[in-house]
Amino acid sequence: MLSKIDVQKFHTLIETNALINTNYGDLNSLLTHILGSATRLCEGEASSILLVNKETQELHFEILLGGAVDEAKHFTFKMGEGIAGWVALHNRSIIITDADKDELHNYDILKVLNFNPKTVLAVPMRVKDECIGVIELINKKGGKTFNDEDLEWLEIFATQAGIAVVNARSMEKAHDKIQQLLHEQVNTGLGNRTIIAKSPVILEKLKIIERVAKTDSSVLLLGESGVGKEIFAEQIHFQSSRSGKPFVKVNCAAIPEGLLESEFFGHVKGAFTSAISSRHGRFELADKGTIFLDEIAELPLALQAKLLRVIQEKSFEKVGSDSTITVDVRILAATNRDIEKQVEEGAFRSDLYYRLNVFPIYIPPLRQRLEDISDLAEFFLNKNIKETKNFL
User: Which residues, in sequence order, are bridge partners of residue 222?
Assistant: First the structure.
Protein backbone atom coordinates (compact mmCIF):
# COMPACT_ATOMS: atom_id res chain seq x y z
CA MET A 1 0.00 0.00 0.00
CA LEU A 2 1.32 3.44 -0.96
CA SER A 3 2.27 5.82 1.83
CA LYS A 4 0.77 9.30 2.08
CA ILE A 5 3.98 10.87 0.78
CA ASP A 6 4.06 8.48 -2.19
CA VAL A 7 0.49 9.44 -3.10
CA GLN A 8 1.52 13.09 -2.94
CA LYS A 9 4.44 12.38 -5.26
CA PHE A 10 2.24 10.62 -7.82
CA HIS A 11 -0.31 13.45 -7.74
CA THR A 12 2.49 15.98 -8.18
CA LEU A 13 3.88 14.10 -11.17
CA ILE A 14 0.45 14.00 -12.83
CA GLU A 15 -0.05 17.72 -12.17
CA THR A 16 3.37 18.55 -13.58
CA ASN A 17 2.80 16.48 -16.72
CA ALA A 18 -0.41 18.45 -17.32
CA LEU A 19 1.50 21.72 -16.94
CA ILE A 20 4.21 20.58 -19.38
CA ASN A 21 1.56 19.80 -22.00
CA THR A 22 -0.20 23.16 -21.68
CA ASN A 23 2.43 25.71 -20.57
CA TYR A 24 4.67 26.41 -23.56
CA GLY A 25 5.56 30.01 -22.89
CA ASP A 26 6.87 30.39 -19.33
CA LEU A 27 9.68 27.87 -18.89
CA ASN A 28 10.99 29.66 -15.81
CA SER A 29 7.73 29.18 -13.91
CA LEU A 30 7.46 25.56 -15.03
CA LEU A 31 11.01 24.68 -13.94
CA THR A 32 10.46 26.49 -10.65
CA HIS A 33 7.32 24.42 -10.07
CA ILE A 34 9.15 21.16 -10.85
CA LEU A 35 12.13 22.04 -8.66
CA GLY A 36 9.93 23.23 -5.81
CA SER A 37 7.89 20.03 -5.89
CA ALA A 38 11.01 17.84 -5.97
CA THR A 39 12.60 19.78 -3.12
CA ARG A 40 9.50 19.56 -0.95
CA LEU A 41 8.78 15.88 -1.58
CA CYS A 42 12.41 14.77 -1.12
CA GLU A 43 12.76 17.02 1.96
CA GLY A 44 15.58 19.21 0.71
CA GLU A 45 16.58 22.54 2.25
CA ALA A 46 17.90 24.12 -0.95
CA SER A 47 17.99 23.14 -4.59
CA SER A 48 18.96 24.19 -8.08
CA ILE A 49 18.54 23.41 -11.75
CA LEU A 50 21.65 23.88 -13.85
CA LEU A 51 21.63 23.79 -17.65
CA VAL A 52 24.44 22.71 -19.96
CA ASN A 53 25.69 25.05 -22.68
CA LYS A 54 26.71 22.62 -25.44
CA GLU A 55 28.88 25.19 -27.22
CA THR A 56 31.00 26.21 -24.24
CA GLN A 57 30.66 22.91 -22.33
CA GLU A 58 29.78 24.89 -19.22
CA LEU A 59 26.96 24.78 -16.69
CA HIS A 60 25.04 27.74 -15.33
CA PHE A 61 22.36 28.07 -12.67
CA GLU A 62 18.91 28.45 -14.22
CA ILE A 63 16.68 28.07 -11.14
CA LEU A 64 17.72 28.27 -7.47
CA LEU A 65 15.61 27.80 -4.36
CA GLY A 66 17.13 28.63 -0.98
CA GLY A 67 20.77 29.30 -0.22
CA ALA A 68 22.91 31.99 -1.85
CA VAL A 69 20.59 32.51 -4.79
CA ASP A 70 21.77 35.94 -6.00
CA GLU A 71 25.47 35.12 -5.76
CA ALA A 72 25.18 31.77 -7.53
CA LYS A 73 23.42 33.20 -10.60
CA HIS A 74 26.67 34.81 -11.70
CA PHE A 75 28.71 31.59 -11.65
CA THR A 76 29.42 29.19 -14.50
CA PHE A 77 31.70 26.18 -14.36
CA LYS A 78 32.98 23.55 -16.74
CA MET A 79 31.80 19.99 -17.20
CA GLY A 80 33.45 17.78 -14.60
CA GLU A 81 33.94 20.54 -12.04
CA GLY A 82 32.26 20.03 -8.69
CA ILE A 83 29.33 17.76 -7.94
CA ALA A 84 26.94 18.98 -10.64
CA GLY A 85 29.76 19.12 -13.18
CA TRP A 86 30.67 15.51 -12.44
CA VAL A 87 27.04 14.44 -12.90
CA ALA A 88 26.78 16.33 -16.21
CA LEU A 89 30.05 14.92 -17.55
CA HIS A 90 29.34 11.30 -16.60
CA ASN A 91 25.56 11.51 -17.12
CA ARG A 92 25.08 9.66 -13.81
CA SER A 93 23.26 10.38 -10.57
CA ILE A 94 25.12 10.68 -7.29
CA ILE A 95 24.35 10.76 -3.56
CA ILE A 96 26.91 12.34 -1.26
CA THR A 97 26.18 11.65 2.37
CA ASP A 98 29.13 13.55 3.90
CA ALA A 99 30.22 16.44 1.69
CA ASP A 100 33.10 17.40 4.00
CA LYS A 101 34.85 14.12 3.23
CA ASP A 102 34.04 14.03 -0.50
CA GLU A 103 36.72 15.23 -2.91
CA LEU A 104 34.16 16.50 -5.42
CA HIS A 105 32.94 19.02 -2.87
CA ASN A 106 36.41 20.56 -2.65
CA TYR A 107 35.92 21.89 -6.16
CA ASP A 108 32.22 22.59 -5.87
CA ILE A 109 30.52 25.95 -6.28
CA LEU A 110 28.65 25.30 -3.02
CA LYS A 111 31.91 25.55 -1.10
CA VAL A 112 32.81 28.79 -2.87
CA LEU A 113 29.45 30.21 -1.81
CA ASN A 114 29.97 29.00 1.77
CA PHE A 115 26.78 26.96 1.72
CA ASN A 116 28.49 24.04 3.46
CA PRO A 117 26.13 21.15 2.71
CA LYS A 118 26.19 17.90 4.60
CA THR A 119 24.37 15.73 2.08
CA VAL A 120 23.84 16.31 -1.65
CA LEU A 121 21.67 14.55 -4.23
CA ALA A 122 22.34 15.35 -7.90
CA VAL A 123 20.79 13.75 -10.99
CA PRO A 124 21.12 14.43 -14.73
CA MET A 125 18.28 15.86 -16.83
CA ARG A 126 18.35 13.49 -19.79
CA VAL A 127 16.83 13.87 -23.24
CA LYS A 128 17.44 10.88 -25.53
CA ASP A 129 20.25 9.76 -23.18
CA GLU A 130 21.97 13.15 -23.47
CA CYS A 131 22.51 15.22 -20.32
CA ILE A 132 21.16 18.73 -20.86
CA GLY A 133 21.26 19.78 -17.22
CA VAL A 134 21.40 18.76 -13.56
CA ILE A 135 19.00 18.94 -10.62
CA GLU A 136 20.74 19.22 -7.27
CA LEU A 137 19.18 18.97 -3.78
CA ILE A 138 21.07 19.97 -0.65
CA ASN A 139 20.72 19.57 3.11
CA LYS A 140 22.96 21.07 5.75
CA LYS A 141 24.23 19.32 8.86
CA GLY A 142 21.35 18.08 10.96
CA GLY A 143 19.02 17.73 8.01
CA LYS A 144 17.77 14.60 6.29
CA THR A 145 20.31 12.38 4.54
CA PHE A 146 19.15 11.57 1.01
CA ASN A 147 18.64 7.92 0.08
CA ASP A 148 18.08 5.73 -3.00
CA GLU A 149 14.32 6.29 -2.93
CA ASP A 150 14.87 10.06 -3.08
CA LEU A 151 17.21 9.50 -6.02
CA GLU A 152 14.61 7.48 -7.93
CA TRP A 153 11.96 10.16 -7.46
CA LEU A 154 14.31 13.00 -8.33
CA GLU A 155 15.29 11.23 -11.56
CA ILE A 156 11.61 11.21 -12.54
CA PHE A 157 11.33 14.93 -11.82
CA ALA A 158 14.53 15.49 -13.80
CA THR A 159 12.98 13.75 -16.80
CA GLN A 160 10.02 16.12 -16.59
CA ALA A 161 12.33 19.13 -16.38
CA GLY A 162 14.23 17.89 -19.44
CA ILE A 163 11.01 17.61 -21.45
CA ALA A 164 10.02 21.13 -20.41
CA VAL A 165 13.36 22.55 -21.57
CA VAL A 166 13.21 20.75 -24.92
CA ASN A 167 9.64 21.93 -25.51
CA ALA A 168 10.64 25.52 -24.79
CA ARG A 169 13.65 25.35 -27.09
CA SER A 170 11.54 23.85 -29.87
CA MET A 171 9.05 26.68 -29.44
CA GLU A 172 11.86 29.22 -29.61
CA LYS A 173 13.11 27.70 -32.88
CA ALA A 174 9.58 27.85 -34.27
CA HIS A 175 9.35 31.44 -33.09
CA ASP A 176 12.62 32.32 -34.86
CA LYS A 177 11.39 30.71 -38.07
CA ILE A 178 8.13 32.63 -37.92
CA GLN A 179 10.04 35.87 -37.35
CA GLN A 180 12.20 35.12 -40.39
CA LEU A 181 9.11 34.51 -42.49
CA LEU A 182 7.56 37.66 -41.11
CA HIS A 183 10.43 39.85 -42.23
CA GLU A 184 10.27 38.25 -45.66
CA GLN A 185 6.59 39.17 -45.81
CA VAL A 186 6.96 42.87 -45.00
CA ASN A 187 7.15 45.05 -48.10
CA THR A 188 8.52 42.50 -50.57
CA GLY A 189 7.09 44.09 -53.70
CA LEU A 190 3.81 42.26 -53.45
CA GLY A 191 2.08 45.27 -55.02
CA ASN A 192 3.43 44.17 -58.39
CA ARG A 193 1.03 41.23 -58.48
CA THR A 194 -1.97 41.88 -60.71
CA ILE A 195 -5.44 40.43 -60.88
CA ILE A 196 -6.17 38.75 -64.22
CA ALA A 197 -9.89 39.02 -64.92
CA LYS A 198 -12.49 40.29 -67.39
CA SER A 199 -15.63 38.90 -65.78
CA PRO A 200 -18.13 41.57 -64.72
CA VAL A 201 -18.24 40.27 -61.15
CA ILE A 202 -14.46 40.67 -60.61
CA LEU A 203 -14.33 44.00 -62.45
CA GLU A 204 -16.99 45.22 -60.08
CA LYS A 205 -14.97 43.98 -57.09
CA LEU A 206 -11.95 45.92 -58.37
CA LYS A 207 -14.01 49.11 -58.55
CA ILE A 208 -15.15 48.51 -54.97
CA ILE A 209 -11.56 47.96 -53.86
CA GLU A 210 -10.45 51.18 -55.52
CA ARG A 211 -13.07 53.08 -53.53
CA VAL A 212 -12.52 51.36 -50.19
CA ALA A 213 -8.74 51.67 -50.50
CA LYS A 214 -9.05 55.43 -50.08
CA THR A 215 -10.59 54.98 -46.63
CA ASP A 216 -9.16 53.56 -43.41
CA SER A 217 -12.12 51.23 -42.86
CA SER A 218 -11.58 47.61 -41.83
CA VAL A 219 -12.29 45.19 -44.65
CA LEU A 220 -13.36 41.56 -44.30
CA LEU A 221 -12.56 39.48 -47.38
CA LEU A 222 -14.75 36.39 -47.70
CA GLY A 223 -14.49 33.42 -50.01
CA GLU A 224 -13.21 29.88 -50.47
CA SER A 225 -9.55 28.93 -50.19
CA GLY A 226 -7.61 29.81 -53.33
CA VAL A 227 -9.86 32.59 -54.67
CA GLY A 228 -7.14 35.21 -54.17
CA LYS A 229 -8.20 37.02 -50.98
CA GLU A 230 -4.56 37.84 -50.22
CA ILE A 231 -4.04 39.49 -53.62
CA PHE A 232 -7.17 41.58 -53.13
CA ALA A 233 -5.84 42.64 -49.71
CA GLU A 234 -2.56 43.69 -51.36
CA GLN A 235 -4.47 45.76 -53.90
CA ILE A 236 -6.31 47.58 -51.10
CA HIS A 237 -3.04 48.41 -49.35
CA PHE A 238 -1.05 49.47 -52.41
CA GLN A 239 -3.87 51.69 -53.68
CA SER A 240 -4.22 53.37 -50.29
CA SER A 241 -2.44 56.33 -48.72
CA ARG A 242 -0.48 53.79 -46.67
CA SER A 243 1.16 52.20 -49.71
CA GLY A 244 4.61 53.48 -48.74
CA LYS A 245 4.35 51.91 -45.30
CA PRO A 246 4.58 48.24 -44.20
CA PHE A 247 2.15 45.61 -45.40
CA VAL A 248 2.34 42.79 -42.84
CA LYS A 249 0.69 39.43 -43.48
CA VAL A 250 -0.32 37.06 -40.70
CA ASN A 251 -1.70 33.58 -41.29
CA CYS A 252 -3.53 33.08 -38.02
CA ALA A 253 -3.93 29.35 -38.63
CA ALA A 254 -0.20 28.76 -39.18
CA ILE A 255 1.09 30.07 -35.83
CA PRO A 256 1.03 27.76 -32.78
CA GLU A 257 -1.52 28.96 -30.23
CA GLY A 258 1.13 29.30 -27.54
CA LEU A 259 3.05 31.80 -29.68
CA LEU A 260 0.15 33.87 -31.02
CA GLU A 261 0.19 36.63 -28.40
CA SER A 262 3.95 37.09 -28.70
CA GLU A 263 3.71 37.11 -32.51
CA PHE A 264 0.93 39.68 -32.51
CA PHE A 265 2.26 42.01 -29.83
CA GLY A 266 5.92 41.06 -29.26
CA HIS A 267 7.68 40.36 -25.97
CA VAL A 268 10.38 41.87 -23.79
CA LYS A 269 13.63 40.24 -22.82
CA GLY A 270 13.08 37.92 -19.86
CA ALA A 271 9.32 37.63 -20.37
CA PHE A 272 9.96 33.89 -20.27
CA THR A 273 13.12 31.85 -19.99
CA SER A 274 13.69 31.45 -23.73
CA ALA A 275 13.06 35.17 -24.38
CA ILE A 276 16.74 36.04 -24.64
CA SER A 277 16.00 39.33 -26.40
CA SER A 278 13.08 41.70 -26.93
CA ARG A 279 11.08 41.35 -30.14
CA HIS A 280 8.64 43.49 -32.05
CA GLY A 281 5.23 42.01 -32.71
CA ARG A 282 3.46 42.22 -36.02
CA PHE A 283 1.20 45.08 -35.00
CA GLU A 284 4.23 47.14 -34.04
CA LEU A 285 5.91 46.33 -37.36
CA ALA A 286 2.76 47.36 -39.21
CA ASP A 287 2.57 50.80 -37.55
CA LYS A 288 1.38 53.46 -40.03
CA GLY A 289 0.74 50.66 -42.52
CA THR A 290 -1.62 47.73 -42.99
CA ILE A 291 -1.90 44.34 -41.34
CA PHE A 292 -3.61 41.48 -43.15
CA LEU A 293 -5.03 38.82 -40.82
CA ASP A 294 -5.65 35.78 -42.98
CA GLU A 295 -7.74 32.92 -41.56
CA ILE A 296 -9.03 35.29 -38.87
CA ALA A 297 -11.73 32.80 -37.84
CA GLU A 298 -9.01 30.49 -36.47
CA LEU A 299 -8.06 32.88 -33.66
CA PRO A 300 -8.74 31.55 -30.15
CA LEU A 301 -11.26 33.52 -28.10
CA ALA A 302 -8.66 34.81 -25.64
CA LEU A 303 -6.70 36.51 -28.39
CA GLN A 304 -9.88 37.77 -30.06
CA ALA A 305 -10.50 39.89 -26.96
CA LYS A 306 -7.00 41.40 -27.16
CA LEU A 307 -7.37 42.05 -30.88
CA LEU A 308 -10.63 43.85 -30.19
CA ARG A 309 -8.83 46.14 -27.77
CA VAL A 310 -6.21 47.02 -30.40
CA ILE A 311 -8.97 47.95 -32.84
CA GLN A 312 -10.86 50.02 -30.26
CA GLU A 313 -7.98 51.68 -28.40
CA LYS A 314 -5.13 51.32 -30.93
CA SER A 315 -2.85 50.16 -28.11
CA PHE A 316 -1.46 47.00 -26.51
CA GLU A 317 1.27 45.73 -24.18
CA LYS A 318 4.08 43.39 -25.13
CA VAL A 319 4.20 40.06 -23.33
CA GLY A 320 6.03 40.64 -20.05
CA SER A 321 5.68 44.43 -20.15
CA ASP A 322 3.36 46.95 -18.46
CA SER A 323 4.21 49.72 -20.94
CA THR A 324 1.48 50.55 -23.45
CA ILE A 325 2.37 50.83 -27.12
CA THR A 326 0.17 52.92 -29.40
CA VAL A 327 -0.07 52.07 -33.10
CA ASP A 328 -1.85 53.34 -36.19
CA VAL A 329 -2.69 50.23 -38.20
CA ARG A 330 -5.34 49.51 -40.78
CA ILE A 331 -6.76 46.02 -40.44
CA LEU A 332 -7.73 43.79 -43.34
CA ALA A 333 -8.99 40.31 -42.50
CA ALA A 334 -9.99 37.24 -44.46
CA THR A 335 -11.62 33.88 -43.86
CA ASN A 336 -12.90 30.93 -45.86
CA ARG A 337 -15.27 29.95 -43.06
CA ASP A 338 -18.90 30.83 -42.41
CA ILE A 339 -17.94 33.38 -39.80
CA GLU A 340 -21.53 34.45 -39.12
CA LYS A 341 -22.28 30.86 -38.12
CA GLN A 342 -19.25 30.88 -35.82
CA VAL A 343 -20.59 34.04 -34.18
CA GLU A 344 -23.95 32.34 -33.62
CA GLU A 345 -22.21 29.30 -32.10
CA GLY A 346 -20.05 31.44 -29.81
CA ALA A 347 -16.77 30.46 -31.47
CA PHE A 348 -16.13 34.02 -32.68
CA ARG A 349 -16.85 37.21 -30.74
CA SER A 350 -19.75 39.18 -32.17
CA ASP A 351 -18.23 42.54 -31.16
CA LEU A 352 -14.99 41.70 -32.97
CA TYR A 353 -16.91 40.47 -36.01
CA TYR A 354 -18.79 43.76 -36.32
CA ARG A 355 -15.53 45.70 -35.96
CA LEU A 356 -13.90 43.72 -38.78
CA ASN A 357 -16.99 43.53 -40.98
CA VAL A 358 -17.20 47.28 -41.65
CA PHE A 359 -16.77 46.62 -45.37
CA PRO A 360 -17.25 42.97 -46.38
CA ILE A 361 -16.14 41.85 -49.85
CA TYR A 362 -17.00 38.39 -51.17
CA ILE A 363 -14.58 36.95 -53.76
CA PRO A 364 -16.32 34.34 -55.95
CA PRO A 365 -14.51 31.13 -57.00
CA LEU A 366 -13.37 30.59 -60.59
CA ARG A 367 -16.27 28.22 -61.32
CA GLN A 368 -18.61 31.20 -60.92
CA ARG A 369 -16.65 33.34 -63.44
CA LEU A 370 -15.76 30.98 -66.25
CA GLU A 371 -14.99 33.86 -68.63
CA ASP A 372 -11.73 34.47 -66.71
CA ILE A 373 -10.29 31.01 -67.46
CA SER A 374 -8.89 31.80 -70.93
CA ASP A 375 -7.05 34.94 -69.76
CA LEU A 376 -5.64 33.11 -66.73
CA ALA A 377 -4.48 30.20 -68.89
CA GLU A 378 -2.73 32.59 -71.29
CA PHE A 379 -1.10 34.46 -68.41
CA PHE A 380 0.34 31.30 -66.81
CA LEU A 381 1.44 29.91 -70.18
CA ASN A 382 3.42 33.07 -70.99
CA LYS A 383 4.83 33.13 -67.47
CA ASN A 384 6.08 29.53 -67.77
CA ILE A 385 7.57 30.19 -71.21
CA LYS A 386 9.48 33.19 -69.86
CA GLU A 387 10.76 31.24 -66.86
CA THR A 388 11.84 28.35 -69.09
CA LYS A 389 13.80 30.71 -71.38
CA ASN A 390 15.52 32.27 -68.39
CA PHE A 391 16.47 28.83 -67.11
CA LEU A 392 17.90 27.75 -70.47
Answer: 335, 362
